[in-house]
């Protein structure tokens, strides 16, 4: 899944809905990757959505990865200690055939 722009009080509900849908459709024990390279800002509401979705994935035996977060988002993850909670990868996974 690709996230872009700002994740805040106004946009977080849409992210939650779309990411929850991806999780629900994924096979159990799946790895769900959120491409964060296009996210310029993420507030506490957005972080809570990501945490909620992480919990959903882990309840199904899977993992949620945040791929390529920009510096401002990485700073928030670091300051809050969430960088040790999430699996963070430096670049989004490439999809074969694309």
Secondary structure elements and pairings:
Layout lengths: L1 E6 L4 H14 L5 E12 L1 H16 L3 E5 L3 H10 L6 E3 L9
Helix pairs in contact: 1-2
Q: What do you see in this structure?
A:
- There is one protein chain.
- This protein is an alpha/beta fold and 98 residues long.
- The protein starts with a strand and ends in a 9-residue tail after the last strand.
- The chain has a single domain, classed as Transcription Regulator spoIIAA, CATH 3.30.750.24.
- It has 3 helices and 4 strands; from the N terminus they run βαβαβαβ.
Pick out its properties.
single chain, 98 residues, alpha/beta, Transcription Regulator spoIIAA, 4-stranded parallel β-sheet, 4 strands, globular
The CATH homologous superfamily: STAS domain
The secondary structure category is alpha/beta
What number of structural domains do the residues give? 1
Strand order of the largest sheet: 1-2-3-4
Short description:
This protein is 41% helix and 27% strand.
């Amino acid at each position: 899944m690709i996230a872009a722009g700002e994740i805040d009080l106004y946009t977080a509900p849409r992210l939650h809905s779309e990411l929850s849908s991806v999780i629900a459709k994924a096979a159990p024990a799946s790895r769900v990757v959120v491409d964060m390279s296009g996210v310029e800002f993420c507030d506490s509401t957005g972080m809570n959505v990501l945490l909620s979705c992480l919990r959903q994935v882990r309840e199904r035996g899977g993992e949620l990865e945040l791929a390529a977060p920009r510096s401002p988002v990485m700073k928030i993850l670091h300051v809050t200690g969430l960088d040790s909670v999430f699996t963070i990868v430096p670049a989004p996974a490439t999809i074969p055939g694309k």
